[in-house]
Amino acid sequence: MATIGLYDSGSGGLSVYREVVKLLPEEHYVYFADNAHCPYGTKDVQYIRERSVAVTDFLLNEGADIIVVACNTATAAAIAFLREKYPAVPFVGMEPAVKPAALGTRSGVIGVLATAGTLKGSKYLDTRGRWAGDVRVVERVGQGFVELVENGILDGPEAEATVRSAVQPLLDAGADTLVLGCTHYPFLMPLISRIAGPGVNIIDPAPAVARQTLRILKEKGIPTGDASFSVLLHSSGDPAPLQRMFKLL
Ligand code: DGL
Fold first, then answer.
1. Going by CA atoms, what residue is nearest to atom 9 of ligand 1?
2. Which of 33, 68, 123, 151 could form a disulfide with 242 if both were Cys (CB 3.0 to 4.6 A apart)?
3. In terms of DSSP H, where are the helices of 93-205?
4. Cβ distance 188 to 211 under 8 Å?
5. Domain architecture of the chain: domains with CATH
6. Do 233 and 246 form a contact (C-beta atoms < 8 A)?
């Protein structure tokens, strides 16, 4: 049985946990929500690196064999730094799903929803430069999305207005494909789909990240699956948001 550590600035990374568990149902999971420091999206790189080191130390202390950085913003700011600092630890990060979006769009316009930190990160900019040369990319920060999810507000007038204000400009620009570039956003998927309508494809990169986690465990020869499952949830701040989101899963 492997011990799989995951972390995010809050409950958003549970959208990744959900996919990893589908592929690896017989492991021990440790999930860390750094919600005392949420959001990461507006913080500088140095701050996110420091938090990522503190959380990594916690997860390693809990016996993590692999760490999934279940946060696009932390991946952008800190994963290269973490790999250098902990060369023996396998890390899996979030990939901005620009490639499948660029390959799949029919209108030639893709919309990317992410935090400000992710959108200015070199990982995202490189991926966009590499795969989206022939399509138009329209970007938007999901302003207020993280707060909605942390507060468990996934529907209703407030959520609808917040989500619409970020999604509508992407639709107006002609996007037929939306990339969810923040792990909190998939929890708003029903609302985003309703606003976008049936002709718009919405891509959550979490299933691909789960496949990558499985691949790396195999590659490293870390034993998995012995018919038992457990999960430890840890928050650096108020535990209520994580408990609420976990119940929802
Ligand atoms: N869930 C995070 C992400 O994927 C970060 C949200 C935030 O803390 O700003 O980017």
1. 41
2. 33
3. 98-104, 116-119, 122-131, 145-150, 157-172, 189-196
4. no
5. 3-94+206-248 (3.40.50.1860), 98-203 (3.40.50.1860)
6. yes
The C-alpha torsion from 34 through 211 and 21 to 88, rounded to 10°, is -50
The model's pLDDT over 61-108, given as tens digits with 9 standing for 90+, comes to 999 999 999 999 999 999 999 999 999 999 999 988 999 999 999 999
Dist. CA 10 → ligand 1 center (Å) = 8
pLDDT per residue over 104-154, tens digit each? Answer: 999 999 999 999 999 999 999 999 999 998 999 999 999 999 999 999 999
Task: Please write the tens of the pLDDT for every residue from 223-235.
Answer: 999 889 999 999 9
pTM (whole model) above 0.85: yes
Determine the residue type at 228.
S
73 alpha carbon to ligand 1 midpoint, in Å? 5
> DSSP per residue over 17-29, as a string?
HHHHHHH--SSEE
